């Protein structure tokens, strides 16, 4: 069976995922594309032999679409995901699931009412080989009970549309998701403080930011978000346990020794850093759709949790570093909880 995918939003990551579904992943074909920019939709659709649709509702309803990929702007995600659920079609939604907790809950409630999982959220780090190795080490118990996690998320530069709240909502949201999964624990509070700001930023932006999170089991997480670090795209994560520690490996890069120096290259963007993770993410999603099974990746509940926790971080930033409790509903049994 070939899964026929309809794509809503043919911008930067939409085009990258269309390439991935066309050239990398077997068992999938992009048959439909829509975008607010009709000319862009037509051009991208033509490049892969797909049909351009005028609206997302038309695309979701199309008999040529078995599964939906949402790669439009964040505030529009909930509407498209709700449309796919109403049509009973599996839907992969790039992060965020929705930009408000209320909209995330609407998706959660719609999926529960449908009665089986249809939604996967695009937190690709869970598919990264290094994070998966860390998860195995933690599960093996070899470093003992986790106590502290030290993280850094650095981008070389960001444009002037990037504002201070995006450090949590757009950037740290990846750590929020992957740490909940790694530790199999819930984040219950957030605190954000700002050190001296770099001069290499747009004036409206607080950069860097230091975020602290606490989990239900008392694990403390510190995360440096520095989106104008200049030197490269650098993701660090180290979990300290009672009997040892486990550190995320850096991407493989040749070590060069010359002229009295040794060096190795640092990647420059997230696309390259997580290319393999994105490929694995889509292979596993297409495999689940092909099998008619529920997706195994991040759920609508995970999307809700990530939004609630990043909202708490933004509230802390806006209240000069107050510790803010994550205002999360109890997790329903439908999503593996007890409520
Ligand atoms: N997992 C990851 O690491 C990353 C995820 N993303 C997420 O992917 C999403 C898209 O980001 P980009 O591709 O960078 O944005 P973009 O601006 O390059 O592309 C978005 C496209 O969606 C279209 N669009 C917007 N609203 C629409 C609607 N209602 N119906 C149809 N088309 C619509 C726009 O015209 C545009 O072509 C965002 O939610 C972003 O957070 C982006 C980068 C990395
Ligand atoms: O999702 C992403 C971007 O939207 C975000 O702006 C970057 O900071 C992240 O590293 C990237 O993975």
TrEMBL record:
Residue span(s) of domain Gfo/Idh/MocA-like oxidoreductase N-terminal: 3-123
Residue span, Gfo/Idh/MocA-like oxidoreductase C-terminal domain: 135-323
UniProt keyword list: NAD, Oxidoreductase
Gene3D superfamilies according to UniProt: Dihydrodipicolinate Reductase, domain 2, NAD(P)-binding Rossmann-like Domain
Key word DNA damage present: no
TM spans (from-to): none
Source organism superkingdom: Bacteria
GO molecular function (one): inositol 2-dehydrogenase (NAD+) activity
Catalytic activity: myo-inositol + NAD(+) = scyllo-inosose + NADH + H(+)
InterPro entries recorded: Gfo-Idh-MocA_inositol_DH, Gfo/Idh/MocA-like_OxRdtase_C, Gfo/Idh/MocA-like_OxRdtase_N, MI/DCI_dehydrogenase, NAD(P)-bd_dom_sf
Gene Ontology BP terms: inositol catabolic process
EC number(s) from the headed UniProt entry: 1.1.1.18
Quaternary organization: Homotetramer.
Family: Belongs to the Gfo/Idh/MocA family.
PANTHER family (alphabetical): INOSITOL 2-DEHYDROGENASE (PTHR43593:SF1), PTHR43593
Function: Involved in the oxidation of myo-inositol (MI) to 2-keto-myo-inositol (2KMI or 2-inosose).
Protein name: Inositol 2-dehydrogenase
Taxonomic placement: Bacteria, Bacillati, Actinomycetota, Actinomycetes, Kitasatosporales
